[in-house]
């Protein structure tokens, strides 16, 4: 069975600091992995997705994530946080069928 | 393209009342989903559809029904609303399930059941 664990329901960083949001997954088949962002009172938007073509995936707004099979991780990073990055971030895994399994989310706060 | 739209955006119901949430997508996607989002619980799948005329139960289907009479529309019904159904409801669509295909989400419906 597939599952997703996001470590840390709340993360605070200073503006300009590194952003690191953690996601670990379990999957019995090669997974398809996604990061979504949700701004207040909005739906989820795709940040990036893992397509197996490259382990380092670049997304929108300067975010990237690295797929590490040995660690079953897909952590999201951004070198320098901006105030506009404050949002909730969701990691999701799919076995390739209709099913998407979402983590419980990490709320990112950016401090001035 | 409007993408995925949801109607209404907000609704307040009394216990026992019924209502229907409408989701529409203009991307010709085969798959459509209804989720509910509650604090600290992420998104939980209520029902989904893999094509026009099909529906299936997700993780938390009790108290909800759905219909997909047209490919572009996916309706979520609450026959007798309960306070436990107070939540934010999101509709999503995708072309090919999880195979390379990300989901596209609507803006959500915030439902309060008193």
Outline of this structure?
The complex is a heterodimer of chains A (112) and B (114). Chain A is mainly beta. Chain A is 0% helix and 55% strand.
Describe this structure as you would to a colleague.
The complex is a heterodimer of chains A (112) and B (114). With 112 residues, chain A is mostly beta strands. Helices cover 0% and strands 55% of the residues of chain A. Chain A has strands at residues 3-7, 10-14, 19-26, 32-38, 44-50, 56-58, 64-68, 73-78, 87-94, 101-102, 106-111. In chain A, strands 2, 4, 5, 9, 10 and 11 form a 6-stranded mixed β-sheet that branches. Chain A is globular and about 40 Å long. The termini of chain A are far apart. The mean pLDDT of chain A is 91. By secondary structure, chain B is mostly beta strands. In chain B, 0% of the residues lie in helices and 49% in strands. Chain B is built from no helices and 11 strands. In chain B, the strands form 2 sheets. In chain B, strands 2, 4, 5, 6, 9, 10 and 11 form a 7-stranded mixed β-sheet that branches. In chain B, strands 1-3-8-7 form a 4-stranded antiparallel β-sheet, with no helix packed on it. The N and C termini of chain B lie far apart (36 Å). The model of chain B has no long low-confidence stretch (mean pLDDT 92). Classes of the chains: A mainly beta (112), B mainly beta (114). Chains A and B meet through strand 4 and strand 5 of A and strand 5 and strand 10 of B.
Write the layout of secondary structure elements.
The complex is a heterodimer of chains A (112) and B (114).
Chain A: E1 3-7, E2 10-14, E3 19-26, E4 32-38, E5 44-50, E6 56-58, E7 64-68, E8 73-78, E9 87-94, E10 101-102, E11 106-111
Parallel strand pairs in A: 2-11
Antiparallel strand pairs in A: 1-3, 3-8, 4-5, 4-9, 6-7, 7-8, 9-10, 9-11
Chain B: E1 4-7, E2 10-13, E3 19-25, E4 31-37, E5 43-49, E6 56-57, E7 64-67, E8 73-78, E9 87-94, E10 104-105, E11 109-113
Parallel strand pairs in B: 2-11
Antiparallel strand pairs in B: 1-3, 3-8, 4-5, 4-9, 5-6, 7-8, 9-10, 9-11
